């Protein structure tokens, strides 16, 4: 019998799985088609240049990104006075990566469920964590992209709009006064859906504690260092595969591809991120025999590595949350 407060919709999970599987298949077939067109021997030769130690370093840099962003999540929990230890935060944050490939990444909301089960904190008090976490990523990526555009030795000027839009969106979302003013302007212009605008306004007010610079600056630093670690891994990877791409050019290409993939709305940015990365590398003169395997490897050592960690952590987080709920 289904609990009325937590209805199950078996058709939706199946649909989400098939959608994700379809996107993965299209991505793999697209990369494979490009690799076949340029010659499998050249592609495999690029991959063959990598040593186990180099792959391990790529994974460590990705792990550094996840750990730094988990620290940021812990900071946000403290702002909301949510009584969680960093050990709990690691379970919640890393376990949520198992749901990264869900449409819109809504599956990551499971983090909030674990928090409420373990601590008894009301869901309304936790909900802002997801919003500010995404906004902090946008701001960090936007600022890093702007730096990459400024210091890149190549023509990444096309990434400047991405940087500007990312930072503006992050500011609008996290600055309660600006978001409230925008919502009130929308209400005056439309004059409809009063309940919807009322709820949105209350949600905007809940973001006010995160607007303090004592919170914003360390959050930006943690997110910026995390994403820079993955950009650095992309730079190292390209060098190991024989492509001469400067650090900031590689960082800019990586981040622009991440934002482009996210803008498509596809789970995990599948398809869009890979296409953008190959296209930008091609514009920089990197041959397809390098850009295709480099794209495949960096996605395996970032996106799919995160999902693998999440899948390993998910049952641990679920069991701990279930015990916490029973103890309460």
UniProtKB/TrEMBL annotation:
Entry keyword set: Cell membrane, Membrane, Transmembrane, Transmembrane helix
Membrane spanning stretches: 17-38, 50-68, 138-157, 163-190, 210-228, 234-257, 269-290, 296-317
InterPro entries: L-PG_synthase/AglD
Keyword Magnesium: no
Domain of life: Bacteria
An annotated GO cellular component: plasma membrane
UniProt keyword Lipid biosynthesis, yes or no: no
Principal location listed in the UniProt entry: membrane
Pfam families for this protein: LPG_synthase_TM
Subcellular location: Cell membrane
Membrane topology, record value: Multi-pass membrane protein
PANTHER family: UPF0104 MEMBRANE PROTEIN MJ1595
Protein name: Flippase-like domain-containing protein
Organism per entry: Halovulum marinum
């Amino acid at each position: 019998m289904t609990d009325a407060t937590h209805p199950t919709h078996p058709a939706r999970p199946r649909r989400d799985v098939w959608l994700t599987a379809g996107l993965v298949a299209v991505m793999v077939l697209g990369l494979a088609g490009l690799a076949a067109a340029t010659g499998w021997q050249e592609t495999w030769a690029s991959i063959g240049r990598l040593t186990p130690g180099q792959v391990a370093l790529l994974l460590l840099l990705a792990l550094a990104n996840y750990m730094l962003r988990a620290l940021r999540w812990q900071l946000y929990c403290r702002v909301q006075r949510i009584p969680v230890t960093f050990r709990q935060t690691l379970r919640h944050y890393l376990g949520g990566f198992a749901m990264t490939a869900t449409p819109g990444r809504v599956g990551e909301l499971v983090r909030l469920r674990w928090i409420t089960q373990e601590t008894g904190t009301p869901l309304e008090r936790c909900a802002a964590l997801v919003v500010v976490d995404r906004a902090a990523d946008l701001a960090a990526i936007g600022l890093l992209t702007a730096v990459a555009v400024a210091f890149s030795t190549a023509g990444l000027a096309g990434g400047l709009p991405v940087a500007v839009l990312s930072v503006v969106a992050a500011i609008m979302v996290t600055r309660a006064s600006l978001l409230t003013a925008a919502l009130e302007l929308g209400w005056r212009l439309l004059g409809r859906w009063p309940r919807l605008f009322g709820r949105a306004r209350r949600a905007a007010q809940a973001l006010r504690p995160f607007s303090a610079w004592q919170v914003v600056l360390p959050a930006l630093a943690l997110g910026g260092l995390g994403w820079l670690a993955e950009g650095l891994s992309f730079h190292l990877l390209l060098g190991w595969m024989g492509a001469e791409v400067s650090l900031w050019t590689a960082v800019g290409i990586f981040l622009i591809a991440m934002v482009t993939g996210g803008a498509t709305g596809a789970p995990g940015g599948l398809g869009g991120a890979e296409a953008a990365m190959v296209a930008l590398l091609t514009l920089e003169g990197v041959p397809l025999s390098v850009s295709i395997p480099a794209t495949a490897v960096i996605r395996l050592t970032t996106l799919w590595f995160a999902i693998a960690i999440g899948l390993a952590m998910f049952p641990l987080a679920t069991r701990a949350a279930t015990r916490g709920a029973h103890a309460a």
